[in-house]
Amino acid sequence: MKMRNSCLLVAVITIAVSICTSCGGGSGMNQDTSPSAPTTAPKAFDEAMPVGTWATCPDCGMVLKIAADTPSVQYHGKYYYFCSGMCKDHFDADPTSYKVAAPKAFDHAMPDGTWATCPVCPSGMEFQIDSTRPMTEYNGKFYYFCKAMCQENFNANPESYITE
C-alpha cells in the first residue's frame, strides 16, 4: 500500500511540476523573482527589444525579463514576448481574442487588410485599412482614419493627436 501511495504522490508531483513549468512559473525560464523585478511592464513594443528588457506575457500576465530564447511574435506591427512556448501557442491560436492595439501611425503606406487604430477616436477605433479609408501623411508618418470627419479633425490640428 505504501508503494502505491508513493507512486501516486510522485505522479501528482510530476504533473504539478509539468503544469507549472509549461507556463514558465516553475522553471524560472524568464521569471525573475528578485526584489529588483518590476511588478508591471509593457505587453507590446514598437520594435524588437534587447535581452534584459522587462515585458509582460500577454497570455498569463507574468512579468518576465527577455532572454535570448524568449518566445516572441510580431503582430499588428507590435512585438510581444511570452513567458513560455505554451503561452505563445495560446496567442498564436487566436490573437484577436487579446486586446492588442493596432498602430496609429506607420512609416510607409500600408496595404489593404492591415489593422490600424484611428488616432482621433477617443475609444481607439480599430479597423482594417482598405481603399475607402482616409489617410494623411504628416511628418513622414502615415495616419489612417475610420472616417472622413476624423481625418478632418486631425488635419486641423495634428499635434493634438500625436502621442508618440
> In the residues, how many domains can be counted?
2
What's the number of extended β-strand segments?
Answer: 8
* Pattern of helices and strands: HEEEEHEEEEH
What does the largest sheet look like? 2 strands, antiparallel
Helicity, as a percent range: 10-25%
Q: What is the distance, rounded to the nearest whole angstrom, between the alpha carbons of the first and last residues?
A: 66 Å
Shape: elongated
Write down the oligomeric state. Answer: single chain
Strand order of the largest sheet: 1-2
Percentage beta strand: 15-25%
Which regions contain 5 or more consecutive residues with pLDDT less than 50?
A: 8-28
Secondary-structure-derived class:
alpha+beta
**Mean pLDDT figure:** 78
Based on CA atoms alone, the radius of gyration comes out at 21 Å
Output the number of helix runs.
3
